[in-house]
Amino acid sequence: MSRLHAAWLLLLPAFTPHSGYGQDPARLQQWVAAHDVASIRALGRPVLPKLVQLYEAARDDSFKARVAQTFYELGWESPEAKRALMRDVHTSNHDLRLQVQWALGRVSNDQDVVDTLIANMRSDSNPLFRDKAACALAYDQIHLSEQQKVRLFAALIEALGDDKEDVRRIALQALQIHTGQTKGFDPGASYADRNQKVKVWQTWLAQYKAGL
Amino acid sequence: MANVARTIQGRFVAPLIGVLIAAGASAQPQAAPTTLVRYSFDDDLIDTGPDTFAVFQSGKGSVRLSLVYRYSGYRSVEIRDIPGDKEFPELQGYFPLRSKGKLYLHFAMMTTDAGEELNIALAGPKWFALRKDGIAFWLKTAGGYLTAISDSMPKKLFAIRAFVWYVVDAAYDIDAGTYDLTIRQEGLEKPVADVRGQANAASQPGSQIDKFSFIGDTGTDDSKVVYYVDDVLVGVDEAIVHQPFVAPGRRKLFFDYWLSAQQERAAHPEPLPLMSMADLGIGSAQTATLRQDGAGELLGQALSGKLATVPDDLPDRSRTILQSVIAWRDGARALRDAHAEVALARFDRASQLSPSAPLPQMDAVLALANLARWDEVELRLAAIVPQWRDDPRLPAALAMIGLARGDLDAVERQLREGAESRGLLAEEYFLTLLWKGDAARAEAFAESMLARASASDASLWRERLGDAAFLTGDIQRARGYYDASLAEHPRPRSVWLKLSDVYFKLGDLEQERTYRERVYGALRAER
């Protein structure tokens, strides 16, 4: 039955920590490598600066990716973690890039995180990175306020007008995941049809904004 | 045994009856309204189960009966969320699926802190997500306001006050996907909210409904709300024949629910597993082409679902291969998600791009079986079976098609020879015998499988022996097998529920409740 119960979590998966302190860097490193997030979570938020240190000191991208994955799973806001992750948000290392893109929205609600992911979604040369940036925008912006969500939606709606069909499609998917709707927008439709549906989305956004 | 008739105070029923009568007056032809759900929490009709409600309180929060506050009678339900425990408490109720017509929801609620988040929803088979058949009606508190989520956006209704009862009445039009909502505050004449024709949560006409839910936060784990709910009533504008309760909390035995679920699963064949690249028409020539074009890594991404589109700058010969793989992969995903029409289109697209690929063709047949388009199944199957003759997946595919068609004799013939050597087929064969009513042969088969099973598989086969014994009416023997199966069972939930049935049959209602409440929880009074 826990599976049924967890269905509400589709809306917003995020957890907060237990209190505790006393991290040993070597042990922390082992836990990160072993993906033992439960032990790390038990240390509470004071573990975040230590994790940032581990991330910044790492010479191995695959280990950095594991630290990024840990940030993702902890889901705790951290300006330091955001600053460290943002340095790798354009890395060409496949695994690290994906983990960083996914983790960013779970450590920060800063506007530049959303802006950067939107830029990656629209302009990265690798379609996989574009696609996964859209995933991050759809699922992982867990700390946004309602006003910040409006800005995210506005950027996604703007991306519906992108020249590239795959960008329009993934932007629509992200909007659909947030709202459950497409408003009839078809990424492959004619320019005129698409433009008409973009206006429907813009009207919706104006109403959303007005209601806050 | 639970009594279906549930007592409710007149003060509570009166407004809803008014709504139902008004609805009946405007509807042509007139239909007799039916109550689907009615809980006052003042009587002893609080058995949890699949046809009543479930209580989740695995964290530090709680859902319990309260004598401290109530809107009517002498008890209500208190929902208390605790931040930081990684869980949220929930009262989740069930009623027969509604796909059309009108549905009326009525309840009273009182929060003790206007600033803390709570969420109340009606949802359908897709659970609590913004999508068709997901959340239909959704109220939440946010920033001190009671807010309705309508057309995927929060709409403030009014500033909610603590320690004041509010009575909520919603008339929900399933076909239109809209609702009228009236909320009255205790002691005030005029409603504090009265909105008409609101789009449902995700603006989805025809969104089905079969459950309600009362929780704190939705997973952010930061709410410390304590709130009270009383007099929950769900009604519809037409006469419905309810099946009677056959045991506490359920209108069918858990065993029958389980058996139906297995049949439902069998009626929807899944895609066959990929065994080699040749399944997708990728031989050495195609592999070399992909390598030459620098697309080898993209093939891995396409197969694992990490590639949604093929880069524009790739040569056409590699683009075609990858597009075929993506189409097949999308089809397989759609078929698993029960979107057979979409799956069929994607499999056909994959076959069009890669005509020599056998797997999309067979998966297309399985999609057609899902859609019960039997003439096309026969036609396509006849065309492709020769090239599948030596493939070990063919018997499984034919058995799945037979099960979907309900042709159990054919399935048995298909599976008899290979069943003992293959895990999946063995389970299908056992179930086929059960569905045919041949419990004795099912039991004998299960015993032969138990004799050669590993420790974890042994638990599953003991459970199946219990199933066969239960069906033959040997309840004591079924209990023995189920008890034994719990030792190393990987998923004991089904066994707990079957044991609840066993103890119900044996007249031990204490044990019946113990096992039922392991899954559905318990609603008890505060101490």
Structure description:
- The complex is a heterodimer of chains A (212) and B (527).
- The longest helix of chain A has 20 residues, at 191-210.
- Chain A has helices at 2-5, 25-33, 37-42, 47-57, 61-74, 79-86, 94-107, 111-123, 127-139, 146-159, 165-179, 191-210.
- The model of chain A is unreliable at 1-6 and 9-22 (pLDDT under 50).
- Chain A folds into 2 domains: 13-144, Leucine-rich Repeat Variant; 145-212, no CATH class.
- With 212 residues, chain A is an all-alpha fold.
- Chain B is of the alpha+beta class and 527 residues long.
- In chain B, strands 1, 3, 4, 6, 11, 12, 13 and 15 form an 8-stranded antiparallel sheet that branches. A 7-stranded antiparallel sheet of chain B has the order 2-5-14-7-8-9-10, with no helix packed on it.
- In chain B, helix 7 (358-370) packs antiparallel against helix 8 and helix 12 packs antiparallel against helix 13.
- Chain B is globular and about 80 Å long.
- The model of chain B is unreliable at 1-15 and 19-30 (pLDDT under 50).
- The chains are: A mainly alpha (212), B alpha+beta (527).
